[in-house]
């Protein structure tokens, strides 16, 4: 006959083997192979200065409506700066952040919120090792005719405030 402590240890080991075995069988979501390429959006002709300024005017109008002091940047389809607005009183650190959000959105062909979600919701922290990524919402691609003509990036408020303003600017492009 086995003593009570030995039985408890044996039961504990069996439990660990069962739990450990079931845990080890969980598939790694990064191993999934999608049928289609994510963000497979063609690059179009670069946005003109006139249209970039109109996008920024819409973004700044939305920002003023809420009394948010933001910085907004528009890049072209090659992720090069086309136009930029710094509202009076906006924090200076947001100058480079707004540009970074716009560049990331254009280069990766998606909203920067995708990267924020990857880090915050799914713990795909490897995203932070990728070149020219910013995991903060507020970068929105500008699509015309299903092609990327540029992107807008806004910074200076919370991520959700930045996103509202960027979307207001992006809505100008059809």
Question: Runs with pLDDT <50, length 5+?
Answer: none
Helix content: 40-55%
What count of helical segments does DSSP give? 5
Radius of gyration, in angstroms, nearest whole number:
23 Å
What percentage of amino acids are in beta strands? 15-25%
In the CATH hierarchy, what is the class?
Alpha Beta
N/C terminus separation: 80 Å
Shape: globular
Main sheet specs? 4 strands, antiparallel
Q: How many beta strands in the DSSP annotation?
A: 4
What secondary-structure arrangement, pairings included, does this model have?
Layout: H1 4-24, H2 49-66, E1 71-76, E2 81-86, H3 94-108, H4 113-120, E3 139-144, E4 147-155, H5 159-170
Antiparallel strand pairs: 1-2, 1-4, 3-4
